[in-house]
Every structure is written in C-alpha cells, then in structure tokens.
Amino acid sequence: MSKSMKMGMLGLILVIPSFLLLFVIVVIPIALSFVESLRNEAGGFDLSRYQFLFTDKAMRSNIIFTLKVTVVSCLIVLIVSYSLAVYMRFSSGRLVDLIRKTYMIPIFIPGVIATYGLINLLGNHGWLSRFLLLIGITLPRIIFDEKGIIIANLWFNIPFTAMLLSSALAGIPNSVLESAKDVGAGRLRVFFQIVFPLSYKTFLVAATFVFMGVIGSFTAPFLVGPNAPQMLGVSMEQVFGVFQEREQAAAIAFFTFLLCSVLGYFYIRSMVKDETARS
Amino acid sequence: MSIQLSIRDLSKRYKTGEGVSGISLDVNKGELITLLGPSGCGKTTVLRSIGGFLEPDSGDILIEGRSVVKLPPEKRPTSMVFQGYNLWPHMTIYDNLAFGLKIRKMPKAEIRSAVEEVLRLVRLPGAEKKYPSQLSGGQQQRIAVARSLLLKPAVLLLDEPFSALDAKLRHEMREELREIQTETGLTMVFVTHDQEEALSLSDRIVVMNHGHIEQIAAPQDIYDAPETLYVAEFIGKMNFLKGGAQGDKLVVGRMEFPNAKHLTGEVVVAVRPEDIILEPGTSQAAGLPGTIKQMMILGHYAEVSIDLGDHGIIRAFQPRDKVKELQLGQSVNATFNKVIAYSNN
Ligand SMILES: Nc1ncnc2c1ncn2[C@@H]1O[C@H](COP(=O)(O)OP(=O)(O)O)[C@@H](O)[C@H]1O
Ligand SMILES: [Mg+2]
C-alpha cells in the first residue's frame, strides 16, 4: 500500500465515528420525522400536514409569531452583544473591567431558575411593577407576552454571543487597526472597513447560533410566553403531548428544521466563498 | 539643510513607572535616523509619540515646523511601519495599497498607476490581486513600506520592521530600504535593537538607554568616539582597563595618551580589539605584558585573548599573518593605538 493511500485510509477511519454519530442522532431522526409528517389521517402519504401548517389560522399565526420573536431577538442579541464586545475590546477603565468579569454570569444560572427569576421580577405583581406603582407608573404586560420571551432570549443568548464576538475581536492585532488610522482612516471607517470585515465570520456564526437556539427554544416560551399565539416549540409539544398528533408534530419539527437549514445554507455558502477567494 | 522633525523635551511615563524622559532630537530633511538601544529602553515609546499613537506627558513634536502633538494619527503627516501585522488580511494587496489613497479621494486611474509604480519600487510587480497571506514575511513588510511610501509622508516611521525576518533577508531588506530612501529622499526614523542594522543603515544614530538619550552621532563617530561608558559598552566590542589621569596625560601601564577630556584620578580606559598591537616577547618596550590564553580564527582575522594579570583579560583582533607568529601560552607585549577614557563614576 502506498503512503498516500495509507494516509487516506487513516483519514477515513478517523472520520467514520463522527459520521456515524451524525447519522444516528441527526440524519435518521430527521428522515424518520419527515416520513412520519407525510402520513395523512387516512394512513396514506401526502402533504396534508404541511397544508394544515399554512392554512390553519392558529398555526399560521404561530409561525409568524415564532419568526417575529426570533428575528427581533436575534437582532437585539447581536446588536447588544457586538456593542458589548466592541466596548470591551477598545475601552479601558473600572466599568469595563467590571463588565468583563461579570457578563458571563447568566451562563451559569440554570434556565428554569432564571426564567422564574424573570417572572418574579417582571410579572404583573413582580418587584418591578410594585416599585413602579409607588411612583405612579403602570408596567405594561411583559410576562405571558412576546416581550417576556424576547427578554428571556436576551438573558440566555447575550453572554455567550458576546463571548464569541469578544474572542473574534481579540484576534485582531492592534497594529492592524493602527495601520488603518495611520493611513488616515477615522473611527467609523476603521470600524466598517477593518473591524467588522475581520469579525463578520464570527458574527455570522453567532447569528446562526442565536437563530437556531431561539427558533427551537422551549423553556422560556413555555414558561413566560402567551397562550396564543405560541412559539413553534411550545406548539409542537402541545400537538404532540396534548392532542397526541404525532404526524402533525413531526411536520412542525421538519418545518422548523427547514427554517434553520436556510440559515445554515447561507452560512456555509459564505464560508466557501471566502475560502475560494483566498486560495 | 532644513529640519523636518523636531522633538523637544519629550517625556512619557507609564503607570508602571517606565517610560522616556527629556528626549530632544532634530532630524534633517531626507535623513535616515535610527533609534538604537536594548529592548525596553523606550524606542517604541518615542516612535509612537511621533506617530500619534501615544500621548506624551510633556514636550513638543514639530513636523516641518508645525506642532503635531495635539493631532490624532490619521491627521499627522507621518506614516508608520509596524513590526508585524501591518496589512489588512481581508483585502488584496491592491486594496491594502489603495486604502489610504481612496481616503484622500485620489482618482481611480491615478491610484492604479501609483500602486503599479510603488510595487515596482519594492520589487513586487504584479502582486495586486494577491492576499497578504499569500506573501512571505519579507514581502508583506515590503508592501507595508510601499503603502507608507504611497502617502508621501513628511516622516516615515519604522518600528523594527525587519526583526521577524531571518538574517539574510534582513540584510537584503536593509539595502533595499536604503535604496528607496536615496531614491525618494524621504525622512525616516528607524527603530532597531540591532546595532549592525543601525550602523549600516543610518545617517545618524540615537543611542538610547533606560528612557533617555545617551548619544546622537553618525555611525562612524558612535563607533570611534562613544561619548558615554554605556555607549562604549553597547556598540561593538570593547576592552575596559583601569588607568589614571595625571595632568594632561592618561597613563595605562607603561603607556601614555593625551588626556583630551581633562579627567582626573582613576579612569576607565576603553580600547577596541582592532586598536591593539601584539608583539612576541616581554621586552622593556612600552605597553602591557601578558600571555596568550586563546586564539580563534574568524575568517580573515583572528580574535586573540590575552591575560594581562592585574589588568584582566583583553581581546584583540589580529590579521591572519600576524597570528602565525603567535602561540598559546606565549608571552606578548600589548600596545594600544588609541584609547578612550571615561571618568570612573
Ligand atoms: N503600554 C504600556 N504600559 C506600561 N508600560 C509600558 C507600556 N509600553 C511600554 N512600556 C514599558 O516602557 C518601557 C519602554 O518600552 P518601549 O518603548 O516599548 O521600549 P522598546 O521599544 O525600546 O523595546 C518598557 O520598560 C516597557 O515595559
Ligand atoms: Mg519596541
């Protein structure tokens, strides 16, 4: 056997376990739920479950609600996290040091506990509303509303996203930025033509993570979301557990998967484009 | 000759207590001046202050007669080449070079020809479409120099630009930079800790130590007449012996030299290895008697170590022919062509 062939074999052997794992816990379940989602009430195969998704009024509003909450959460998370990361990278002083030390704390608090904390803080009779009542302000409805879900999403996603973006910004050497100033670039130009392009790949990774995490989230929407409309995760659970409609639940699951793959596609495409441009 | 850059009593102290103080320096138009000193002596601090990346505590910096200390880097008529990571990795070489010109709103056609011309100057024609990662370290630094040249700065600042390159390449880059400097007549401030680089490249050298300037002079003068003991020790090889000053005479062993600096009492006498003459035998002649400890042939010359007893061990450079007359353990008489004396405190 030639050396290159041996190396090839070795590569193959190394790849097989992860490939198998991917197959067993991702590909097969998706394929199975896809097949299941195609089964209609009469036991035959058609797209009626998907038709229901887009024609049923409640379902349609669930989808729109999910997309809205996801997009709004993603936008706020990314804007806040990126600003935070930029602030931590380029500023100095006591306040920044404090933020650097504390911004990751939410990661270490279990989701359910944090969610109940939010309910206690922001609920109808929570601390904040009681405090605001004292000075004559009535807090709008936050818990059991989309605002509650969005706030919970911020809590869960900002620390990790900020950490990811911080490490990307830390990877940009000072001299790269100083060179830009040196040739005459002002702050804005340095940001938009140097800092952002050099961190946008990580930005994309972060966006993908947040999007997928939020669109498939369950705990927060279940505990602080409204009864209707619902996030797809909650709706799926209800269709599956309460109405016992496995096939319809599978259709929702597969649809959610498709939504995620759209983003995945753009992500992979931009990575490949970058690679080919530079080699 | 007009003064292009003038630094007046510049001081900068970091929170750690380190920094520079009392730096004053005039650089002539078209001059290549080098800041030389060991790592941590404050070279980068001075350079970054000129470039605007650091705000000095006190002092003034004038370029073409105008104070620039209040200006941010992007507004200063300077350009800086850093030690490494100068280029923007997500841009092609063309975009890297054109970036500053676009900011200056130069027409596209002009940018194109300027980039082409400067790439020829730095010997990388046709590199426009490449990315920095596709170039070697030396080529990347050439592009960084090119980018600065395009902006026609009043002063070009270079902070150990070649220190990450291997010795041979460093040598080549040095020569190229000197050629570019002759061709463009640009005023340059070059920072290095490598004295060979400084001696071979500069019109004048500024020797720095612990945040202050020890001496400013042409390379030859720095070498021949180091003003302070520190410079004498730092530049080239040097032997140090004890001597005495008596009136207008310096006495080292049985040798006498003129006491040019009018020193008194005990002095430190410095002598370059190439200024030592060795004669076999201990005669009654003037000089210092010693024995040969070691001989190393180093190409066209040899380094000979001589034990002078009370005066310690000195090293002398001798021509190859001369070494043939000498043997290990042999008694010799050492005389000095010239010495430099320093007061003993
Ligand atoms: N940002 C800084 N904060 C604190 N000390 C610094 C800083 N930059 C440099 N120094 C200290 O100041 C001294 C001079 O540094 P520098 O100018 O970089 O020296 P050089 O370039 O000659 O090696 C060093 O002792 C260094 O440790
Ligand atoms: Mg330095």
Descriptive notes:
With 279 residues, chain A is mainly alpha-helical. Chain A is built from twelve helices and no strands. Chain A has helices spanning 3-37, 48-55, 57-90, 94-102, 111-122, 127-134, 146-170, 174-182, 187-215, 219-224, 232-242, 246-278. The longest helix of chain A is centred in the first third of the chain and has 35 residues, at 3-37. Chain B contains nine helices and 20 strands. The structure holds adenosine-5'-diphosphate (ADP) and magnesium ion.
Strand order of the largest sheet of chain B: 6-7-8-3-9-10
CATH superfamily of the domain at 58-112 and 141-278 in chain A: MetI-like
Largest protein-protein interface: A-B, 18 and 29 residues
What is the ordering of alpha helices and beta strands of chain B? EEEHEEEHHHEHEHEEHHEEEEEEEEHEE
Number of helices of chain B: 9
Can you write the helix and strand succession of chain A as a string?
A: HHHHHHHHHHHH
Q: Give the tally of β-strands of chain A.
A: 0
Global structural class of chain A = mainly alpha
> Which descriptor suits the 3D outline of chain A?
flat
Tell me the name of the CATH class of the largest domain in chain B.
Alpha Beta
Number of helices of chain A: 12
Proportion of residues in helical segments of chain B: 25-40%
Share of β-strand residues of chain A: under 5%
- Stated plainly, the CATH topology of the largest domain in chain B is called Rossmann fold
What fraction, in percent, of the residue positions of chain A are helical?
over 70%
| Structural class computed from helices and strand pairing of chain B | alpha+beta
Name the CATH superfamily assignment of the largest domain in chain B. Answer: P-loop containing nucleotide triphosphate hydrolases
Amino- and carboxy-terminal Cα gap of chain A: 31 Å
The N- and C-terminal alpha carbons of chain B lie at a distance of 38 Å
Stretches of chain A where pLDDT is under 50 for at least 5 consecutive residues are none
- Low-confidence runs of chain B: none
InterPro entries (chain A): MetI-like, MetI-like_sf
Membrane topology (chain A): Multi-pass membrane protein
Organism (chain A): Cohnella lupini
GO biological process, one term (chain A): transmembrane transport
